[in-house]
Amino acid sequence: MRLDVVTIFPEYLEPLNVSLVGKARARGQLDVHVHDLRQWTYDRHNTVDDTPYGGGPGMVMKTEPWGEALDQTLADGYDAGAQGPVLVVPTPSGRPFTQELAVELSERPWLIFTPARYEGIDRRVMDEYATRMPVYEVSIGDYVLAGGEAAVLVITEAVARLLPGVLGNAESHRDDSFAPGAMANLLEGPVYTKPPVWRGHAIPEVLVSGHHGKIARWRRDEAFRRTAANRPDLIERCDPAAFDKKDRETLSILGWAPEPGGRFWRRVEGVEE
Ligand code: 6GU
What we know:
The protein is of the alpha/beta class. It is built from 8 helices and 11 strands. The strands form 4 sheets. A 5-stranded parallel sheet has the order 2-1-6-5-7. A two-stranded antiparallel sheet has the order 3-4. The chain has a two-stranded antiparallel ribbon with strand order 8-9.
């Protein structure tokens, strides 16, 4: 997979040399190119922003540097044999970045990221490139960052670990909390390793019982417990057909009940933890 990142802070992308993404690069599984947007400015101050039409606070990133940067990036990529580019525009107004979108992006051969600072990029840049390639405007969560560079790191790490051969074990992401079909989309429960007792905290007995059925059941119950506490929306979204008898018991203990006549589960009001 080829990745291009155009940014006014190329040094912000240094973490792409480290850990899983760095190793994928070193192995030739990821071909990463980081570009300084200011290369495509021609005034003394290397200006990339200007005041917004219609007034309002902040500054807007100008069309011309982005246009030249993307034209050059596309030309260089095609010259190097890359194909099928998509533009990924990090913005708090984008669609939510999910594991499903990470899987979709991991299936593309070439991602071009345009992290912005200030109040964002002049709309016409996205409109222009949308005539040539898919454009994904993506948000990584309901909070506001000062710029899109951190989002590029997040998206790249989520995508890179899905590429064939990047994680050691092909089954490693089958159980990811948000993998399609994982535990009916429950969060993963707690994990433990040696020693068996640490500062008076023992590991759960069942994990050393050698009883695989009981261990699987315990893990699923813990997954329900954690999901109910941290992400009740995921349980409400579940198809109850995915729940067996013991799941229903566990949910009932956790204060959930089937909606009268409905297929959805809701937290019962007024039940103490
Ligand atoms: Cl992708 N960019 C910025 N600036 N803020 C964000 C974001 C992206 N996702 C959530 N907040």
